[in-house]
Design a protein that fits this description.
Oligomer: single chain
Number of helices: 4
InterPro entries: Hexapep, Hexapep_transf_CS, LpxD, Trimer_LpxA-like_sf, UDP_GlcNAc_AcTrfase_non-rep
CATH superfamily of the largest domain: Hexapeptide repeat proteins
Shape: flat
Active site: 241
Helix content: 10-25%
Number of strands: 39
Organism: Paramuribaculum intestinale
GO molecular function: N-acyltransferase activity; UDP-3-O-[(3R)-3-hydroxyacyl]-glucosamine N-acyltransferase activity
CATH topology of the largest domain: UDP N-Acetylglucosamine Acyltransferase, domain 1
Largest sheet: 12 strands, mixed
CATH class of the largest domain: Mainly Beta
Structural class: alpha/beta
Domain UDP-3-O-[3-hydroxymyristoyl] glucosamine N-acyltransferase non-repeat region: 22-89
């Protein structure tokens, strides 16, 4: 598949600076550019590569100013990173069109309506009372339990498991190994051990959500565990029962959210972050990797560390810790001087 720089600029609503007819047939990182590739420059620290890249074209911002000659054709756009994402999506759709049809063997419970444009892979299981939206794709060995609702255009990849009664919105992506709707971790202590508390709720996932591989979202004890519109969850994340993750929040891998905690909208949560239960995280909070949060967090906060504190305080603490060996030595010398002068 091949395009010219001019055609790409038209798709991206950009402006070409250089050879409009140069042929583009692949993508490459700017530091690994090669002839026929298109790259992008979004992070300023990669600017030196634009002067030596072998890529045939580079997406740059409209206000980019070259400090020396650039061999590649430039395509000026509003947001190079967002533009390359859209171009990749277009190419992916062309090269990997949606599948259609029902492969055998698979199990579809009696009475389940399967639209003509749906794909159901071999060895998939569709339970009684399930609802499958138009254009949904359910890959081999996926499990869609009784009463589950799968929205239009949603993709459930191989081996994902959706337990009974859960709802998946439109245009969602559920990656392999994800488990949606397993029992929440609820046990009542008794004189004879722990008694299991039935988890009678479900998981409600809104539209345009992506759930990473091997991520687990537990069903609510009562009501719903909610994943709101546009949320993106990385691989290996645990969301406990009765939690709520606000719209357009993103979480990196290996994070854990304990029961009944609510995250606000447009939050950014780094890898291996742990959130205690029954707390509230405000909107647009940023939490650095491996931080631990054990209390409510105000909207707009920037946190880092364990237990997490604001970024400025954490930086001061880290600096002080690095100085501890020198400080210890100085205190030890002072103590010896005091002792010798007695």
């Amino acid at each position: 598949m091949e395009f010219t720089a001019g055609q790409i600029a038209a798709l991206a609503e950009g402006v070409v600076e250089g050879d409009e007819s140069v042929k583009i047939n692949t993508f490459a990182k700017i530091e690994e550019g090669r002839q026929g590739a298109i790259s992008f420059l979004a992070n300023p620290k990669y600017t030196p590569y634009i002067y030596e890249t072998l890529s045939s074209a580079v997406l740059v911002s409209r206000d980019f100013v070259a400090e020396k000659p650039v061999k590649a054709t430039l395509i000026r756009v509003d947001d190079p990173y967002a533009t390359v994402a859209r171009l990749l999506a277009m190419v992916d759709q062309l090269m990997n069109p949606p599948r259609r049809g029902v492969e055998q063997p698979c199990f579809i419970a009696e009475g389940v309506e399967v639209p003509d444009d749906v794909y159901i892979g071999a060895f998939a299981y569709i339970g009684a009372g399930a609802k499958i939206g138009s254009g949904a794709q359910i890959y081999p060995q996926a499990y869609v339990g009784d009463g589950v609702s799968v929205g239009d255009g949603t993709i459930i990849y191989a081996g994902a498991k959706i337990y009974r009664g859960c709802r998946i919105g439109k245009r969602c992506i559920i990656h392999s190994g994800a488990v949606i709707g397993a029992d929440g971790f609820g046990f009542a202590p008794t004189d004879h051990g722990y008694e299991k508390i039935p988890q009678t709720g479900n998981v409600d996932i809104a539209d345009d959500v992506e759930i990473g591989a091997n991520t687990t979202i537990d069903r609510a004890m009562m009501g719903s565990t909610r994943i709101c519109r546009g949320v993106k969850l990385d691989n290996l994340i645990q969301i406990a029962h009765n939690c709520e993750v606000g719209a357009d929040t993103v979480m990196a891998a290996q994070g854990g959210v304990a029961g009944s905690t609510k995250l606000g909208e447009r939050c950014m949560v780094g890898g291996q972050v742990g959130l205690a239960g029954h707390i509230h995280i405000g909107d647009e909070v940023h939490i650095g990797a491996q931080s631990g949060i054990n209390k409510d967090v105000a909207a707009g906060s920037r946190l880092f560390g364990y237990p997490a504190t604001d970024v400025v305080s954490y930086g001061r603490q880290a600096l002080a810790i690095r100085k501890l060996p020198t400080l210890y030595k100085r205190v030890d010398e002072i103590e010896r001087l005091i002792k010798d002068n007695k």
